[in-house]
Amino acid sequence: MSDLSDLEHVSGDELTPVQIRGILNQIDLDITNLVRDGKLAAINYSVAGDSGVTTNRAANLQALLTARQYYQSLLNEIPSFQISQASLE
Predict the structure, then answer these.
(1) Cα–Cα dist 38/81, whole Å
(2) Domain for residue 28, yes or no?
(3) pLDDT tens digits for 43-57?
(4) Does a structural domain hold residue 24?
(5) What is the C-alpha to C-alpha distance for residues 23 and 79, in angstroms, rounded to an integer?
(6) Is the overall model pTM greater than 0.90, yes or no?
């Protein structure tokens, strides 16, 4: 599938709490994999391709933490309540 050139014909629904929790779980997994076994060294590496983008794991960790904070705030904004009812007959 080729890349989109604009967002004119893109539509979608709001994320559900279940979807947001799934995204948070994936981010947590990515963070765990990044920091385990000393992988958080400040080694620069390049992304293959014409762009020649370089980054380091510390920058990736910061990006993941920022994304996690964003999705957690989305989840926190969703109204939630629990109703209980008891019958004492």
Answers:
(1) 41
(2) yes
(3) 555 556 666 666 677
(4) yes
(5) 19
(6) no
Q: Domain limits at 42?
A: 17-76
Are the C-beta atoms of 34 and 64 separated by less than 8 Å?
Answer: yes
How many CB atoms are located within 10 Å of the residue 80 CB?
7
Evaluate whether residue 51 is within a structural domain: yes
Number of domains, the chain: 1
* Calpha distance 48→54 (Å, rounded): 9
| DSSP H or E stretch at residue 81 | none
pLDDT in tens, 3-25: 888 888 889 999 999 999 999 99
Contacts of 45 (CB under 8 A, 6+ apart): 54, 55, 56
In a domain, 53, yes or no: yes
- 3-class state of residue 45 by DSSP: strand
Supply the pLDDT for residue 61.
85
Cβ atoms of 71 and 31 closer than 8 Å: no
Query: Token pair of 87, please?
Result: 């019958």
